[in-house]
Write a structure and sequence with these properties.
The chain is mostly helical. The chain contains six helices and no strands. The longest helix has 30 residues, at 24-53.
Length: 156
């Protein structure tokens, strides 16, 4: 964490965002930044689809909207993460396999979101966007930890 704060204090934003690093705090900071952009893609798509395509219909339509939005956010997250966070190649697989593994981890995150959507939106009645924000914070930690440990673990 000291290295991250040092880079920020020096105004070395190239080091914070672009230079290769194995520092977990810098990577997680970048992952949050990249995740924020992907979250805007996903949340924007969810709202647009739900509001304009399904005219704010509930039930099944919310799940369908979330699924489409998830795919768009996953693609944005993968591309940006490869550029800024996990710049090393996964040792476990080729590019297609890497994306597949990345997607499987993301699908577990989607299932967590869908479960929380079912509990808090369908059963309790919270607004779907409020549940989406809450579940996104939980899934952020899951996605980073799983991808770091399963795909981009440092060589021993």
């Amino acid at each position: 964490m000291k290295e991250l704060f040092s880079l920020i204090a020096k105004g070395n934003f190239k080091g914070v965002f672009f230079e290769k690093t194995d520092n977990v705090f810098i990577q997680f900071f970048r992952y949050c930044f990249v995740g924020g952009i992907a979250t805007l893609v996903e949340g924007g798509a969810l709202w647009l689809i739900q509001h304009f395509v399904f005219k704010d219909a509930g039930g099944f339509y919310v799940y369908f909207s979330q699924g489409i939005a998830f795919v768009l956010g996953l693609i944005a997250n993968f591309i940006l993460s490869k550029l800024f966070v996990f710049q090393e190649k996964s040792e476990k697989t080729n590019a297609a396999g890497e994306f597949a593994a990345y997607a499987v981890i993301g699908v577990v995150g989607l299932l967590i979101k869908e479960l929380l959507l079912w509990v808090f939106n369908i059963q309790i009645g919270w607004h779907y966007m409020l549940v989406w924000v809450f579940s996104t914070l939980i899934v952020l930690v899951w996605n980073y930890a799983a991808r770091k440990v399963l795909l981009y673990r440092k060589k021993k």
